Amino acid sequence: DTGVSQNPRHKITKRGQNVTFRCDPISEHNRLYWYRQTLGQGPEFLTYFQNEAQLEKSRLLSDRFSAERPKGSFSTLEIQRTEQGDSAMYLCASSVTGTRNTEAFFGQGTRLTVV
Amino acid sequence: DAKTTQPNSMESNEEEPVHLPCNHSTISGTDYIHWYRQLPSQGPEYVIHGLTSNVNNRMASLAIAEDRKSSTLILHRATLRDAAVYYCILPDRGNDMRFGAGTRLTVKP
To answer: A85 partner at 20 to 30 Å CA-CA among B28, B54, B80, B102?
Structure first.
């Protein structure tokens, strides 16, 4: 297993464009999480899935953001009508079950720059 | 959600032990204490976690106070590769993790 994979690693887009990121978790990990991280800050929770069900969404996840995990495997995070404030590192993580008593594995992230 | 408090930054000399503190005075009886670290330009990586007893693994040791209101991550011999931001986290009842600002550890040669 190669760990959590995120694509692309870097994305530069013009303001107003839509972007989509993909996360491939470790196989058989039921939980999948999305985080956003800006420079000098810790990762901020966005949303998480238990298999294909999206169980929680942060208030940070505005209407322009949507996440899916259609078959309980890979996940996509789409940002519509990007704004400069969306520039950040978007991190994906997966775990076998909830992270209360187990570890989560993070991907390398997708760095988004909105110009 | 139980909150954690960590110093913003710490410094250590290479090959010396490092003790990274974390306060979590509102911890509940069933909250696990997790530590993750984030090296530059990488995603966070798991370090260690525990509930009540001290824990050891190949990366570090976790010392948990008897009242569980604080804990200390111990790196026994810091190396330059240990320079990172260290996060102390208590996953909430929803089982997701909320990160604070963490402690930025600088290791001096």
So the answer is: B102
Contact A86, A97 (CB under 8 A): no
Question: Would you call A108 an interface residue with chain B, using a CB distance cutoff of 8 Å?
Answer: yes
Give A81→chain B minimum CA distance, Å.
26
Q: What is the DSSP letter of B82?
A: G
A62-88: string of b/e by CB count within 10 Å (b at 16+)? eeebbbebeeeebbebebeebeeebbb
Residues from chain B contacting residue A48 (CB–CB below 8 Å): 96
Return all residues near A2 (Cβ < 8 A) that are at least 6 apart: none
Calpha distance A38→A23 (Å, rounded): 19
Can you tell me the distance from the alpha carbon of A46 to that of A4, in angstroms, rounded to the nearest whole number? Answer: 17
pLDDT tens figures, B53-71 = 899 999 999 999 999 999 9
Confidence of residue A88 (pLDDT cuts 50, 70, 90): very high
Distance CA B98, CA B92 (A): 8
